Amino acid sequence: MTMLSSLVRFGRRQLHTIVSREIIKPSSPTPSHLKTHNLSLHDQLAPDAYVPLVIFYPNYSNIDLDSRLKLLDMKKSLSQTLTQYYPFAGRVAKKTPSFVDCNDDGIEFLEAQNDKPMTDFIRNMQHEDLDQLFPNGQLWKKLNHTFEDFEKDKASLLAVQVNQFACGGIAVAVSLHHKIADGSSLCHFFNDWAIMTRLRSWEQEYVVSPINPYFLSVKGTNLNYQGISLDKSRDNCVTRSFVFPGTKLNDLKLKVMAMTADSEQPIINPTRLEVLNWLLYRCALRTGSFKPTGFAQVTNIRNKMIEPLPKTTIGNLYILPAFSTTDDPNDITPNFFVSQFKKLKRDVQGIKDIKSEFENLQTMSPESLIEEEQSKTDDYYTSTSLCTYPLYGIDFGWGKPIKASVAGAMIINNFVAVDACNGGGIEVFVSLGKQDMPFFQKDPELLSFCESI
To answer: Which Pfam family, just one, is annotated for this protein (predicted)?
Structure first.
């Protein structure tokens, strides 16, 4: 069935058309001993929402290189990739899932066409314009299916939409349900799928998979909980992008070091994210309408523990360490903020291994555990970084991308950072209340380090 959506922008009606949708299943059946994938306590606490990531690839040749052949390679390689990522092609068993039924039911794959050149779309877009690139509105939201479909196990845990622009460029958008994996997992899946597609385009025949995702085997437990809610104040939330060039980040580092040079504990050689999060938090507090209780940093624990996990470990393997602050932005000095930020990282590195982390969670009552995690999401400013992931190295065989972006209206008072496409800069997607964003965008201190808005 062909569906049509449109958006009035750029002085005329922009057409974005869904031209096809189908189900892609694993190329080989999942072995019987892998049919049940238990969700860890981290998974069960994760939001009942989809994590959306889109990557843009221009038509480097400026000609149409048989788009149908590209799509065919993508579908075949996706089928092969799902054989390794078998839980992604399964279904959660009930509304408050504790396991995935790895039944090979497959994932949704949509094709869409946009009548604008990609460069025009990127140059003129607002953040909300990215939403149409994703399947079924699956952007930080609960599943966009009827409750009856969910109960019948029809919910696809992963969905893909390949968007072709008038110039021949392609935007590949993927939404992955947070219950089975986090942002790190999504980045690894995206890259592995690209590797398989690139190999297919060279070989044109079946290739032996070089990818090897690692799924933890965990004991079956059930919190009887749907997961952290991201719904608070979502209707009042707006997301905007801010680019901080590498040279400006170096200037910010110098400013922070100069501000603390005469203190008892001067800050020496801070990281980009330490000083950038200080700036963002300080400027956000100056908007004045929201009284936060603190700052929380979403932290990938795979390589932080004393006994690290493989970086390709798939699942929700992050924690949300936090610290309390004053409500007065003038008190958020770089000494205080950066020292607290560094302490969060040291505390995470004190975790022995993943077994001890799970055991520690089990010592808390489900009610107190859920209440603590939900309060951080609702009342703290939160920050996530994807800067360590080589998103601009994800190559399907058509060349490197020109832009990688998260999408959708995220939770209020939230920062998500990704590497900018060149120059050592960082792009941050900032989500604030609609009444706060205009003040944030005009903050002179922010603008002195920001390339453009």
So the answer is: Transferase
Interatomic CA distance for residues 432 and 130, integer angstroms: 18
**pLDDT on residue 438:** 94
Pick the closest to residue 226 from 46, 412, 38, 372 (CA basis). Answer: 46
Query: N- to C-terminal Cα distance for the chain?
Result: 38
Number of structural domains the chain divides into: 2
- Tell me, yes or no, whether 401 lies in a domain: yes
Confidence (pLDDT) at 287: 86
Same-domain status, 158 and 68: yes
> Taking each helix axis from N to C terminus, what angle separates 246-260 and 272-285, rounded to the nearest 10 degrees?
80
Domain assignment of residue 452, yes or no: no
Residues 6+ apart with CB under 8 A from 11: none
Instruction: Give pLDDT tens digits for 135-181.
Output: 887 777 655 444 344 444 467 899 999 999 999 999 999 999 999 99
Q: Are 65 and 72 in contact (CB under 8 A)?
A: no
Q: Which amino acid is at 195?
A: I
Q: Are 192 and 244 found together in one domain? A: no
The mean per-residue pLDDT over the stretch 372-399 comes to: 90
Distance CA 253, CA 268 (A): 9
Chosen domain end from 185, 215, 245:
215
Distance of alpha carbon 260 from alpha carbon 268, whole angstroms: 9
pLDDT digits (tens, 9 = 90+) for 216-266: 999 888 888 777 887 766 678 899 999 999 999 999 999 999 999 988 889
The rounded distance, in Å, linking the Cα atoms of 379 and 111 is: 39
Domain that holds residue 281: 234-447
Q: Rounded to an integer, what distance in angstroms lies between the CA atom of residue 425 and that of residue 373?
A: 31
Residue 210 has pLDDT above 90, yes or no: no
Which helix (H) or strand (E) is 110 found in, with range? strand 107-114
Radius of gyration of the chain (CA): 22
Tokens of 431: 């989500």
Per-residue tokens: 232: 């608070």
- Same domain? For 208 and 240 the reply is no
| Domain co-membership, 193 together with 70 | yes
Residue 251 and residue 209 share a domain: no
Mean pLDDT, residues 318-346: 88
* Cβ proximity of 377 and 228 under 8 Å: yes
pLDDT at 313 over 90: yes
**b/e map 351-371, b = 16+ CB within 10 Å:** beebeebbeebeeeebeebbe
Q: Do 194 and 238 fall within a single domain?
A: no
- In a domain? residue 229: no
Helix and strand numbers (H, E) in the chain are: 12, 20
Q: What's the CATH number where 171 sits?
A: 3.30.559.10
